[in-house]
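Why do we care about 3D structure at all? Because function follows from shape, and shape follows, mostly, from sequence. That is the central idea of this module. The next example makes it concrete: a single protein chain, its amino acid sequence, and then its structure expressed as tokens.
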Amino acid sequence: MPLGIAQVNVTPPELAAVRVMEHLGAELPAGLTFQRHDGPVVSLGSVLKGSKPTLLVFAYHRCPMLCSFVIDGLMKGLRDVKATAGDEYRVVSVSIDPRDNPESASKKREQVIARYGRAAKANDAFTFLTSDEATIKALTAAVGFEYSYDERQDQYAHPAAVFLVSPTGHLTRYLYGIVYDPDDLKLAIIESKAEKARTTIEKLLLYCYHYDPQGKRYALVAMRVMRLGGLLTVLALGSLIGFLWRADKRKMALAGGSGSTPGSL
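And the structure:
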């Protein structure tokens, strides 16, 4: 390489092991145990499984930058999602630092709820978990969240991502970055919740949008929208023709019954 030219394509050693390997459809290990922000030791299954999908975030409580960006971006996006935390979804944050504890988790949880800025509808709307290194690595491996510890800086290098987990504990979607579009979040929640019956509006939304693995977001499918628009136009015209036909019949019936009859004044 010529002198003076920087080797810009070389990945720093501390980032070589930082990535996300998608395991869509995988069931997370329900038997892993964590300590909740308010103290009790709970199984992962008891936290994730139930009637609502989960937005799962990996972070650590003294992270100087990226963790806060991810969580702030998620809270900003969720503020513009009509459904409220604890109603149709919940948020679970798992610390990747085994030195974190319920006290630091509780403080971080209060900060995140303040950033959310809306009243949650259930106590389990926001759950913060800590555990030992082996347990943390077992969960991150199951998700495909690969991170590394930089001993020199005493910090963790990790990806920026949010993971959707279905009510039965299966991974349904990976969303990346530090900015989360409210529509992407809404559609990801709908897809994750799809183990239950979808409403008609939810079906229409998922018909018009699909997840683009290249762009890592949901994209409007123009051809489907055109087909749906054509179908709705046909239905609207059919309804209008039916209405006009019924109205015409009523007029004819009234006209036929308004003529003079013998003995009338």
